[in-house]
Design brief:
By secondary structure, the chain is of the alpha+beta class. It is 45% helix and 29% strand. The relative contact order is 0.11.
């Protein structure tokens, strides 16, 4: 009787596993791709080749990020992540917020032997892949600087006299 119960439980586990696999295929969203890749940054040192398929599922070939007047491409992100895996980086998600159909606001903490920092990005997706990324805090600072420059230009010019 114990054998029958064990065999029966095994069959139920197999059915559950198959149902979970089907559900996972239905849940093939940007969020699932992102979280699957993020979990690979678990503090273990690894070769990039181990996660390259997940990286390619996540990043569009036409991806770029504008950072301090520099465009960062998918290949440059790949090089950066290769280094992060070599360092055994650990990433902890702080938030993942949908901002409309193709925009996601993400914030996470990156920790390794060389750094401990929080990264905040506004991601634009296309076909469940990241096609653009920007730092919303940097973009906000640039808009504020631009607004300040406009105010300065609108001010009447005054002559400054130096007293000798």
């Amino acid at each position: 009787m114990g054998l029958f119960r064990h065999h029966h439980r095994h069959h139920a586990d197999t059915a559950t596993t198959e149902a979970n696999a089907e559900a996972a295929q239905e849940q093939d969203t940007f969020e699932t791709h992102f979280l699957r890749y993020l979990r690979t940054f678990d503090g273990s040192k690894r070769e990039f080749s181990e996660v390259e398929a997940l990286f390619n599922q996540l990043y569009d070939d036409d991806f770029y990020e504008s950072k301090n007047d520099t465009l960062i491409t998918k290949d440059q992100v790949k090089q950066s992540h290769t280094r992060l895996f070599e360092l055994g980086s650990k990433v902890t998600l702080i938030h993942f917020k949908h901002k409309g159909v193709n925009h996601v606001d993400i914030k996470y903490r990156l920790v390794n032997a060389e750094c401990d920092r929080t990264i905040h990005q506004l991601i634009t997706t296309k076909d469940r892949k990241i096609i653009r990324a920007e730092n919303p805090d940097q973009a906000k600072q640039e808009r504020e600087i631009h607004r300040e420059e406009v105010r300065v230009e609108e001010c009447p010019r005054r002559e400054v006299r130096r007293e000798e």
